[in-house]
Target: Histidine triad (HIT) family protein
Amino acid sequence: MPYAYDDQNIFAKILRGEIPAKPVFESEHTLAFPDISPKKKAHVLVIPKGPYRCYDHFVQAASDAEQLDFFKSVAKVAELMGVAESAGGEGFRLITNSGAHSHQEVPHFHVHLLGGEPCGPLVCD
Ligand code: AMP
Model:
């Protein structure tokens, strides 16, 4: 079944400038901004600018240039946030939710980049 993309989701509105966000990083294909409800001292969302619903949709449908740009941008954001070891940080966690079982709330592919303090167990029951 093809992935349907709802362009009325919150991140699509941020990309169109209809909802404010303060970018911490932007590249040709990628945007990063703070999560509105941070779960750790550092909590940034990294999203592609293209209309992809989730990780698997992104990998199937995005161009190589978009995918390379996205994953390099995630690393760049970890450096800018000072959580990457290369920036003297103590590490970080990446989370991406895909679909109903993951409890994905916003149907636009995004990676949560969390750090600045210990992240705890991998998952909770
Ligand atoms: P997920 O459950 O993986 O889809 O996560 C969606 C995330 O988007 C949550 O952590 C929300 O706090 C965050 N979020 C929702 N609206 C906004 C917004 N306007 N700006 C920044 N983050 C948001």
About this structure: The two ends are 30 Å apart (CA to CA). Residues 10-115 form a domain with the HIT family, subunit A fold (CATH 3.30.428.10).
